[in-house]
Amino acid sequence: MTKLTQLPSWLALTDHVQEIPHMRDLFAQDSQRFDNMSLSAAGLFLDYSKNRATDKTLSLLFQLAKESNLSTHIAAMFKGDKINTTEQRAVLHTALRDNSGKATLVDDINIAPEIQTTLDKMAQFIDAVTSGRWQGYTGKKMTDVVSIGIGGSFLGPKVVSQALRPYWSGHVNCHFVANVDGTSISEKLKGLNPETTLFLMSSKSFGTQETLTNTLTAKAWLLEHGAKQQDVAHHFVAITSNVAKATEFGIDPKNIFPMWDWVGGRYSLWSAIGLPIAMLIGMDNFKALLAGANKMDKHFASAPFEENMPVIMAMLSLWYTNFYGAQSNVVLTYDHYLRGLPAYFQQLDMESNGKTTTLNGASVDYSTGPVIWGGEGTNGQHAYHQLLHQGTGLIPADFIMPLQSHNPIGEHHIQLASNCFGQTQALMQGRTYEESLSELSSSSLNEQDKALIAKHKVMPGNKPSNTLLMDKLTPDTLGALIALYEHRTFVQGVIWQLNSFDQWGVELGKILGNDVLERLESSKPSQTLDASSNGLINLFRQGTL
Ligand SMILES: O=P(O)(O)OC[C@H]1O[C@](O)(CO)[C@@H](O)[C@@H]1O
């Protein structure tokens, strides 16, 4: 594997970065820039013209993808090769949404039938619950479902459920518990009736401390309200790959939905981990979500790089990370239902590419995964857009907005759109000193003050952004959108020569946390750790400052 920074395209890009005019000039030079730098795929429209990129830039970035053997890596993933090399696992979240019936082999076993069987089991379970056939320990139908999980076993279902609120069937309410902080589950259980509450315990490993603790608390809550041990089976189902531990906990094996090693946690909402989503929106809409993702999969697997939405977004973001020193990317969702999506993309990308060791064990000598952050528009304009416009760093922005609202009242949506598009324009063109001074010409300020204030009003512009549009936020377009970002993350991991599908970095904290827990529970003060850890532990043990 050639060193990334020695690839011909990388060296050429290093020189090329000096050649990029201000975006204002790029637009002035090419009246067709918008038409030439936008494309549609899987129900999404991407305008990537507001980027610091010329035809040569794009050509070199696609050459870098080619020199990185991206096509080979894409084919290997879809084929089920064990590209998660450190765990010797395939990466097949794409198979979860491929209803073509095509065989996909993992260790010579076709996984397609089990995927379909699990979807059927989900449908039967949901029908039993929503029809009232599934009853609790006092014979009542379920009214509330509490999903217990964390990380990939929580955030996808939570964010997608929130995003598809217009599609909720209304049969049951759904609540999400993740944090081990007792406040989380306490607040969620307040007001729920144990007789009509069903817990979905989502944990691929069935070994995550937070999830186990919350599940035990949920079980205790049921028992405290009159349920017997044998009633637990009526109020718990599990989504896990660890059937033995789930059965040992007291969950009826027939109420266990499978998780597979070839699905990574942060890529798992398409599996039975998505049960809370399907419970809320129904299986037809859940299958539409899968179908939307599948459309993006087909686009990603077949489109030439120059017309490949995930590849274009990945390579432009990498351009800023590795050649402009951008430390973060911001995702701005101009749709209230999508307010949770930036956090989801944060987990997806940062747990995938926040790494420094390459596939062959070398340490990188280039930047890898940026910080992913963001929030809903227009709120961000009153919070952090100041820094986006006038801060010292370069923070490439993705703006996401549906053309039609689910709630088309008054002037709201057109004003939302005006803000979204206005922001991308301001980031691109900025405002020069001369323009600032001219705007102050009629003010009562004296000339010296006008000159000073004008300096404060200068905005450099040349701040890159992508704008992603869809007709409407539906299960289909949401599925395509999430798959787009999954593949964007994958492409960057390939170029950076990383394994995007393990997460060794989360292990040490868990191990040390278990040791700290023992010290916190000990009757003796902690003395053998560093002074800070000892001090903090002993303050907690004494319970007061
Ligand atoms: O589903 P599990 O095994 O409880 O793991 C929960 C989460 O913890 C991690 O392993 C580490 O954050 C994630 O990858 C995963 O989604």
UniProtKB/TrEMBL annotation:
GO terms for biological process: gluconeogenesis; glucose 6-phosphate metabolic process; glycolytic process. Its EC number is 5.3.1.9. Pfam families: PGI. It comes from the Bacteria. It catalyses: alpha-D-glucose 6-phosphate = beta-D-fructose 6-phosphate. Belongs to the GPI family. The lineage of its organism: Bacteria, Pseudomonadati, Pseudomonadota, Gammaproteobacteria, Alteromonadales. CDD domains: SIS_PGI_1, SIS_PGI_2. GO terms for molecular function: carbohydrate derivative binding; glucose-6-phosphate isomerase activity; monosaccharide binding. Gene3D superfamilies: 1.10.1390.10, Glucose-6-phosphate isomerase like protein, domain 1. The gene is pgi. Keywords: Cytoplasm, Gluconeogenesis, Glycolysis, Isomerase. This is Glucose-6-phosphate isomerase. SUPFAM superfamilies: SIS domain. The active site is at residues 351, 382, 510. Catalyzes the reversible isomerization of glucose-6-phosphate to fructose-6-phosphate. GO terms for cellular component: cytosol. Pathway: Carbohydrate biosynthesis; gluconeogenesis; Carbohydrate degradation; glycolysis; D-glyceraldehyde 3-phosphate and glycerone phosphate from D-glucose: step 2/4.
